[in-house]
Design a protein that fits this description.
Layout: E1 21-27, E2 30-31, E3 35-37, H1 49-53, E4 56-58, E5 61-65, E6 71-74, H2 76-89, H3 97-110, E7 123-132, E8 145-154, E9 165-169, H4 186-201, E10 206-208, E11 225-229, E12 235-238, H5 247-260, E13 264-267, E14 279-284, E15 288-297, E16 300-303, H6 313-326, E17 337-339
Parallel strand pairs: 9-10, 9-15, 12-13
Antiparallel strand pairs: 1-2, 1-3, 1-8, 4-7, 5-6, 5-7, 6-17, 7-8, 11-12, 11-14, 14-15, 15-16
The structure holds pyridoxal-5'-phosphate and 2-OXO-4-methylpentanoic acid (COI).
Length: 341
C-alpha cells in the first residue's frame, strides 16, 4: 500500500480529511450494521439533540506503525468501555465494545495510507464519537443517534514536541463535584474553551484546573491528566471523581510499577505540595507525556528542577517505555496492543 504524500515529520495536531469513515445509526431502539463512507459531512435535523442540548460524546486513540512494520492501536477496549460509561451518564445508547473495536479497526484499515510511517514522530489519531441526531425541543434525550469514527494523521499536541511547557493555574472550573468531569462529554470541552483561549492569549499552553469545591486540589488540564515525580523518585497522580480516567495515565501507573520498579501513589494532590515535586507531566492520548517546566500561579512561578530544556529523567523513562510498547520496541502486557494489519 502506497502512503499519501504528507510531510509526516512536520504535522501538528490538526484535522486532515482521510478517505473513509464509519457511520452507524441508532433508530427504533437498535443500531444498524453501519457502513464505511467517503462522505465526510453529517446531515441532521436543525433541532437535533446534539445541536440544541449538546448531547454528544467522543473518544480518542491512536494507530501506530511499529518497528516490525505492523499497524496497531493501543487498548481500544478501554476506549470502548469508557464510551459506554459516558453514554450511560448522558442518556445515550451504548455502542457495544466488540462493535466499537471492529469499527476502529475497519476505519484504520480503510485509511492505512494515512498511517504515518515508523519513526516519523507522527501517528494516526482515531476519533470515535456519538451524538443525538433526532429532533428534541423539550429538554430530553434524543430518540435517534449516530456513531461515527474518523481518522486524521497528527503530530505533537503541543508546539515544540517534547519541550517542557508552561501552564497556569486557572480560576475557571472544568467540572462540578457531582457533574460530568469523569466522562468524555463534549460539554466538558465547550466549558473549557473560554479558559483555553484566555490561557493562550496570556502565553500559557494549558490550564491547571483545581477542584471546583475548594480550589485546593489538583485535578487535570483541559485535555490531559497530571503525573508528578517526587524528589525521591515516586510517581504521584491525582485521584478525583471529577477527572477523566485517562487510559494513558492508567497504563503509565502499571508501566512505572512493572517495567521500571517505580512506586506509584494515586491520591489527592494538594496544590500546596506541587512546588515540592521534581518533575511534572501531562499525559493523554494526544499529549502522550508532555513535560511541564513551569506553573504560573497568579504571577507566582513554580519552576520544576527538570527545567525548560528537556523532560525530567523519570518522565523520560516513562515516555520511552510507554512509546516503546506502542511502537513495538518492547513487549507489551497481555491485551494492550491490538494488531490491525
Ligand atoms: N483528560 C482529559 C480531559 C482528556 O480530554 C483526555 C484525553 O482523552 C485525557 C485526560 C487523557 O485520556 P487518555 O489517556 O485516555 O487519552
Ligand atoms: C485525547 O487525548 O485523545 C483527547 O481527546 C484530548 C483532546 C484535548 C484532543
Amino acid at each position: 500500500m502506497e502512503k499519501k504524500d504528507i510531510d509526516w515529520s512536520n504535522l501538528g495536531f490538526g484535522y486532515i480529511k482521510t478517505d473513509k469513515r464509519f457511520v452507524s445509526n441508532f433508530k427504533d431502539g437498535a443500531w444498524d450494521d453501519g457502513i464505511m463512507t467517503e462522505d465526510a459531512t453529517v446531515s441532521i435535523s436543525e433541532c437535533a439533540g446534539v445541536l440544541q442540548y449538546a448531547q454528544t460524546c467522543f473518544e480518542g486513540l491512536k494507530a501506530y506503525t511499529t518497528k516490525q512494520g505492523k499497524i496497531v492501536c493501543f487498548r481500544p477496549d478501554l476506549n470502548a468501555q469508557r464510551m459506554i460509561d459516558t453514554c450511560k451518564r448522558l442518556e445515550m445508547p451504548v455502542f457495544p465494545e466488540e462493535r466499537f473495536v471492529e469499527a476502529v479497526v475497519e476505519t484504520v484499515k480503510a485509511n492505512a495510507a494515512y498511517v504515518p510511517p515508523y519513526g516519523s514522530g507522527a501517528t494516526l489519531y482515531i476519533r470515535p464519537y456519538m451524538f443525538g441526531s433526532s429532533a428534541v425541543i423539550g429538554v430530553s434525550p434524543a430518540e435517534e443517534y449516530q456513531f461515527r469514527v474518523f481518522t486524521t494523521p497528527v503530530g505533537p499536541y503541543f508546539k515544540g514536541g517534547a519541550k517542557p511547557i508552561t501552564i497556569r493555574v486557572s480560576d475557571f472550573d472544568r467540572a462540578a463535584p457531582h457533574g460530568t468531569g469523569h466522562i468524555k462529554a463534549g460539554l466538558n470541552y465547550a466549558m473549557s474553551l473560554y479558559a483555553i483561549v484566555d490561557a493562550h492569549n496570556q502565553g500559557f499552553a494549558e490550564n491547571m484546573y483545581l477542584d471546583a469545591a475548594t480550589h485546593t486540589k489538583v485535578e487535570e488540564t483541559g485535555g490531559a491528566n497530571f503525573i508528578f515525580i517526587t524528589k525521591d523518585g515516586k510517581l504521584v497522580t491525582p485521584k478525583s471523581n471529577s477527572i477523566l480516567p485517562s487510559i494513558t495515565r492508567r497504563s503509565l501507573m502499571q508501566v512505572a510499577k512493572d517495567y521500571l520498579g517505580i512506586e506509584v501513589e494515586e491520591r489527592e494532590v494538594f496544590f500546596d505540595e506541587v512546588k515540592d515535586f521534581a518533575e511534572c507531566g501531562l499525559c493523554g492520548t494526544a499529549a502522550v507525556i508532555s513535560p511541564v517546566g513551569k506553573i504560573n500561579d497568579h504571577g507566582k512561578e513554580i519552576c520544576f528542577p527538570s527545567g525548560m530544556d528537556e523532560m525530567g529523567p523519570i518522565t523520560k523513562k516513562l515516555y520511552d517505555t510507554l512509546t516503546g510498547i506502542q511502537m513495538g520496541h518492547m513487549d507489551a502486557p497481555e491485551g494492550w496492543i491490538k494488531e490491525i494489519m
